[in-house]
Each structure stands twice: as C-alpha cells, then as structure tokens.
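Structure tokens please, single chain.
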Amino acid sequence: MDKNVIRPGQWPLGIRFAVATDAEHVRIAIFNSAGELVKVLWDEPARAYVDYQLAWDGTNYLGRPVTSNVYLIRLFAPSVLLIKLVGFVQ
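Here you go.
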C-alpha cells in the first residue's frame, strides 16, 4: 500500500499482498483505532507467490461509509501478523 492518509474522493484504497508458502487460511481485516472490526476483505486460502490485489472502498461491514479515524489493516496468516496504519480524513 502506498498511501497512509486517505481523503474524500481517493477511494478505493488498493491493498496488495503475497505469502511465501501456500496458506490454508489468510485473513485481511480492517479495524478502527478502538480495535473494533470494521470489515473483512479476505478470509480464504492463498497460494504462494501469487500477487493478490484487493480494494477497500471505505465502507464498513454494513456498507456504510466510515468516519475520520485511524484504521489498522491486519493480515493474519500462519506464523504471520502484519499491521498497516491508514488514516482517513474528511
């Protein structure tokens, strides 16, 4: 991900990831600064060395637009936890 701050009109936020070994379960989820789940973008297996591309449209799991906040994009995979912070400013 190239951007750390998102402004109105800059959606969707592109998210690229790859794993080094085949993984039966990979999950990429968005959390707000309070640690509450906002949306799950990926929750399925991933193949090794495949460049996956996702997009977050700035909505929560109900399809409603998110508010200004700091959001954490977390990638969970076997033996891996990656976190990226992204700020959204209206």
